[in-house]
Write a structure and sequence with these properties.
Layout (H helix, E strand, L loop, with lengths): L3 H16 L3 H14 L4 H13 L3 H14 L4 H13 L3 H14 L4 H13 L3 H15 L3 H17 L3 H14 L4 H12 L1
Helix pairs in contact: 1-2, 1-3, 2-3, 3-4, 4-5, 5-6, 6-7, 7-8, 8-9, 9-10, 9-11, 10-11
């Protein structure tokens, strides 16, 4: 029987290779670990991300699907598979994965942002704004998250060429959470637009 510390060492080496953009070595190390621990999600995530880094998109997609089979309640591989589809310009398939990831965890900011990006690419600004309104309810009383949504909203208004409304949205974010730095960056961006 393998000791967990051995698998952990393999995982750490694979992560190190991936961080150094040595994707082929990361894939090799993660693959060796997967042979020993085929259900290890972390090793499979490293391998999937390394496949992406080395341009092996089909293998990354296959790996993400395998991870989803092993851990169907984990929104991260579902979300990442959506990002792969988005990068391949398979926008509607990407949205399907984003929707599923959102159902699994509606508080993930990354999923929220990618769903908004989908609407922006499709120029479905009203749907993006409606989604922002719904997200306020999801985040409840969390001031930083509410300020974040107002910032996103401001970018949608800018895309609609409604600079004054974008500015009001940012000022609302600043009023709600004055410590959220991104609001000030976006306010400057609006003034420069």
């Amino acid at each position: 029987e393998l000791k967990p510390s051995f698998i952990k060492a393999v995982m750490l080496r694979a992560e190190l290779y991936a961080r150094e953009n040595s994707f082929d070595l990361a894939i090799l190390e993660a693959s060796n670990g997967i042979k020993l621990a085929p259900t290890n999600i972390h090793l499979r995530m490293i391998r999937a991300q390394s496949y992406l880094g080395s341009g092996k998109i089909k293998l990354a997609e296959t790996e993400y699907r395998e991870i989803i089979k092993l851990d169907p309640e984990n929104p991260l591989p579902v979300f990442l598979l959506g990002k792969v589809k988005f990068a391949k310009n398979e926008l509607d398939q990407a949205k399907t994965y984003y929707d599923k990831a959102y159902q699994l965890n509606p508080k993930l900011a990354e999923v929220f942002i990618e769903k908004i990006n989908y609407y922006l690419v499709k120029k479905e600004y009203d749907k993006a704004l409606k989604f922002c309104s719904e997200q306020f309810e999801v985040y409840g009383e969390n001031k930083t998250s509410i300020a974040f949504v107002h910032n996103v909203q401001s970018q949608i208004y800018l895309a609609k060429k409604q600079k004054d409304i974008a500015r009001k949205s940012i000022l609302t974010a600043i009023e709600i959470e004055p410590e959220y730095i991104k609001s000030y960056e976006n306010l400057a961006r609006i003034h420069l637009a």
